[in-house]
From TrEMBL:
It holds the Pfam family Lactamase_B. It comes from the Eukaryota. It comes from Chlorella variabilis. This is Metallo-beta-lactamase domain-containing protein. Residues 316-373 are annotated as: Disordered. Residues 345-373 have a biased composition (Gly residues).
Length: 373
């Protein structure tokens, strides 16, 4: 009798981890649901969850007048910012849920009206590409815009990794492989070159970037005015919301990539957010949150204004022992490498600004300008 009771207890105890794992996976599958909610005029946000990671996707409306006078009418065009996480058997159908949410958001508001048009998928950096294959198939006329240094991965011509304090691209390569977009072995996928738009320069307004990119980009983005309604500063991975016990907090933080120091990222992010003369109302990090301009400036006010120097300790000690200059003389500029080399922050040249692109509201073509990525 005692042996039977013990076997029952052992059986029940062995079931507990399986039940907990099942509940966790069920919660994860439920958390992939995505619904775009209006956060500001012309700005809709969708949040998903991936075991504590909260990727955020945005839809930005760009209205244009189309047709021949007097039959011209306002038509809603849309820019999708980032493409979320791919589907997986373990963690759920993130990409499928995102595609469904985009279709729902662009549906006609009234019977007889035309649906909204998705004209551009803007990738802030190489990690947020999970639903890109599904989106490209569902919206064959949509273009894909990315920074010129990220674009080779998307079209299937990845460059060789750079070393010696240059931008490291291995992390981006792994992201592409994980998303099924890296053409290795028998896998020959990628963004068609004719649908890819390379963004060059130091940042700024997306329309200005399109003009600088040449005729192809002008045609692809010809409908973009000098500003859009939402006035959103696309931060990518430049900053991220702080994480508390009950989810995302109300603060901002940075996550260094490669050899970039936190202080370097903070200085560059502060220069980006505090810059005067740029018309934006909302700061949109990839990892969640939608911060007003005033709140964002309050949060980064205590961050350093300049990138502190970094001391090469081994070399400094060797020189000091050999009668060389003191250690402080061996200080060098902090490394500004970043594996997220897209439109996300890249604090180059002393952290003078971010590499983010902004979609502004004013007619001056403003937008945060940063270093040449």
């Amino acid at each position: 009798m005692v042996s039977t009771d013990r076997s029952k207890l052992v059986a029940v105890a062995s079931l507990v981890p399986a039940v907990l794992l099942g509940l966790l996976l069920f919660w994860q599958w439920r958390s992939t649901a995505c619904t775009f909610v209006e956060a500001a005029p012309g700005l809709r946000l969708c949040h998903q969850h991936l075991l504590g990671y909260q990727p955020e996707t945005a839809l930005i409306r760009v209205q244009s007048r189309e047709g021949v006078w007097p039959w011209r009418r306002a038509v809603d065009h849309w820019v999708l910012v980032d493409a979320g996480v791919r589907d997986s058997l373990l963690f759920g159908s993130h990409a499928s849920s995102l595609l469904k949410a985009v279709r729902h958001a662009l549906r006609p508001a009234r019977p007889g009206e035309a649906p909204g048009q998705l004209d551009l998928i803007l990738l802030t950096h190489a990690h947020a590409i999970g639903a890109l294959p599904k989106l490209l198939q569902a919206y064959p006329d949509a273009k894909v815009a990315a920074h010129a240094e990220e674009l080779p991965f998307l079209v299937g011509h990845p460059p060789q990794p750079l070393v010696d304090n240059k931008t490291q691209v291995l992390l981006s390569a792994r992201a592409m492989i994980a998303a099924g977009l890296f053409p290795i072995a028998e896998q020959q996928q990628g963004v068609p070159a004719e649908r890819a738009v390379a963004l060059h320069g130091e940042g700024g307004d997306l329309a200005d970037a399109a003009k600088a990119a040449g005729a192809a980009a002008k045609r692809a983005l010809r409908w973009l005015p000098r500003g859009v309604l939402s006035g959103t500063l696309l931060a990518g991975d430049a900053v991220a919301p702080t994480k508390g016990w009950l989810g995302w907090g109300d603060g901002l933080t940075v996550s260094p990539y490669a050899s970039t120091t936190p202080a370097a990222l903070q200085a560059a992010a502060k220069a980006l957010i505090m810059q005067e003369g740029r018309s934006w109302s909302w700061l949109l990090p990839l990892h969640g949150g939608n911060f007003s301009r005033l709140r964002a400036q309050e949060l980064v006010g205590s961050w350093p204004d300049e990138v502190p120097p970094v001391v090469d300790a081994p070399q400094a000690a060797a020189d000091a022992g050999a009668g060389g200059p003191p250690p402080h003389a061996q200080e060098r500029a902090a490394s500004h490498d970043t594996a997220a080399a897209g439109l996300g922050l890249s604090p180059g040249n002393g952290g003078g600004g971010g590499g983010s692109f902004s979609l502004d509201t004013d007619g001056g073509g403003g937008g945060a300008r940063g270093p040449d990525l």
